[in-house]
Amino acid sequence: MTPVFGIAGHSGSGKTTLIEAMLPLLAARGLRVNVIKHSHHDFQMEPPGKDSARFRLAGAQEVMVASPFRYAIIHELREAPEPSLDEQLARLSPADLVLVEGFKRAAIPRIEVYRPVTGKPSLHAEDGSFLAVATDAPLETGLPCLPLNEPAQVAAFICRSLDLG
């Protein structure tokens, strides 16, 4: 099974920026990395009025858009429950690591991205299952504190935690 590691934190804490910075570092280690990003909001993958959007609006359950450069599958839930993280992981192509953004309560190894300047409470204070905190400020916690602005150190922590070398 592909190792999975979560990056959790409140909106605006820097999760996406951290993952974006780590991806080339992990690739340089020879790792193929997939990412799942959870959103609480509706989103559009294609511009309204394009063929694939028209197919979805007409009732298609799934639409695949394919080109010589990439493909995407849009699956409409149409009142069905959101798939579990395990179900979503099962749909991904093989990789050496899957980073998961969001899923704050998932039972996977994870770190919290925490910036006190946002004024939001930390997650790790209420949830003892985090392995570390990536932060940009001094923090009193029993967890390892990783420098948020040094993604190489965060990537190294993830690799050590999962024994990825």
Automatic annotation (TrEMBL):
Alphabetized Pfam families for the sequence: MobB
GO terms of molecular function: GTP binding
Domain Molybdopterin-guanine dinucleotide biosynthesis protein B (MobB) intervals: 4-136
Any one of the GO BP annotations: Mo-molybdopterin cofactor biosynthetic process
SUPFAM superfamilies registered for this protein in UniProt: P-loop containing nucleoside triphosphate hydrolases
The protein's name: Molybdopterin-guanine dinucleotide biosynthesis adapter protein
Organism: Achromobacter agilis
